[in-house]
Amino acid sequence: MTNNRSAKITIAHINDTHSHFEPSSISLSLPASILDGQTSVYASCGGFSRVSSAVKDVQRQAHLKEREFMFVHAGDCFQGTLFFSLYKGYANAKLLNAIGIDAMALGNHELDMGNGPVADFMDQVQFPLLAGNWDLSRENQTKPNPLRDKDNVYAFDQRAGHARYIVKEVFGEPVALFGLAIENMAGIANPDPDTDFLGVVEVATKTIAAIHQQGINKIILLSHLGYERDLELATQVDGLGAIIGGHTHTMQGDFTNIGYGVTDGYARMVDGTCVVQAGCNALALGQLELDFNPDGTVASAGGVNQLLLGRQFTVDASRSEHLEESIHDAVKAYLKSQPNVRFCAKDPFIENVLNTQFRPAVRELQTQHIAEVREPLRHVRIPDSRGGSHIAPLVVDSFLWKGRQMGHEVDFAIHNAGGVRSSLNPGPITSADIAGKLLPFAIGLMVYQVKGIRVREALEGAINNAIDNGVEGTGTGSFPYTANLRFTYRCCGEAGRRIEQLETYRNGNWIAVQDEVTYTSISSGYTATGKEGYDALLDCIAEPQALEVTMADAFADYAAERQTLTAPEESLIHYIPCQCSEDVA
Fold it and tell me: Which one, of 74, 65, 55, lies nearest residue 9 by Cα?
């Protein structure tokens, strides 16, 4: 019989860092008495150099209190900034190794470009990837770099029937950790079709039972399921001491003291399981103080999420207009007294890695002016009273232009609004603005042939998904923008008939798209492979052809060719929102 003992562990955690190795400028709203009537100040926040310094300090304090320590990442380190656009997973591997990650969960953005980049990433990192419901048993072993037999990939064990897990010794007492990823990974990312994601409840239940059979009763889940799903899972599964999560960018805690809202309290307990999450973009560090009873139940769970701030505060976001000295001192004193703020010096080792290996190429792109933006180009996903996005139609037009430039006879282009991430202000636009802000997802373009009826179905499916019109959607990001293709969407129309007046521009005229005619279209690899309502595009005439050019590459070349960017003269999408009257009682 196993003689289990109590265990005390401090777990530092981050999630959804999305290649934000550099600090971000954030606005802090402070009491008027502190700011002498001003409403806010700007601070430098986060970045991997500050994360590293904070983690070292938390680890030092844990050991002084005779607590074991771990540092984990709950998924989505890929995508997000110019560092990823330039270096893909290599920069993440190098910097995650440098800051000392002990384990990481698999996020959906790790799979935006298929399994290959994950496999390459795992060859470079020094920590395990916990993805316990990822079934690699049917993986094609003739691939250039298969995942199945990598020792540091803790996926589903088909023979044993549960997730692989790691064991952390806490002063002689074993604590098990396993990971779970989103079940609908194929719906929101691009995992290879020979690998599947299994149901989280069943995998969690079987894994906990298998761990218990080994005499281990203290179990932690590293999750990339989203905050609400983590809370739900805590009620569905017994035996988890903590769920350390990601995906929804949830910043647990009360941040009203600096002008942000409240999301529960940190370390929320649900049916005996502690649930935590720590925001996004390397702005904050979660610090979970978890104490287990000998029987594996949680004796206590506490800790804090802390924003990681520099010591200088300014009036403006560019951080060039400084506060008066007395106000600056008052701001610093106020923030220093707040428990959810930590002042952090930058770790010189991480700074050296960035300066010598990655920043030079990024800085070069930040100074390369591609074109001039002549007027504000706003971005909205779903058209509102002011109309649709100004910038998304230009982005999708660049896909059409690039495809034709490469010799493909493309009829039109389609792109989902969520793939465009920012508006553009007047002034010069650089490669860094395009690849780091506007189109940070390093996803390639694909040309595909599809019948007109499938185009019609895909457009309706994407909009239905975006506005939850008769379906349970996955978010507004699926709303389509087009080039050389125009249509009306009538929300109150009959399902399957909501797309009206679907036309493509050919030989100087708009002509109706015919259901049985085959057309050539170009989209991002995300849209072309049927994500988030675009599944009708999967019924294509031939396999989509990858062009080996990213969205950002296409738009940069397009902008350089045009030299100036202005809003489209007319909208190709006539979106008629639901105007159905309520039933009268």
Answer: 65
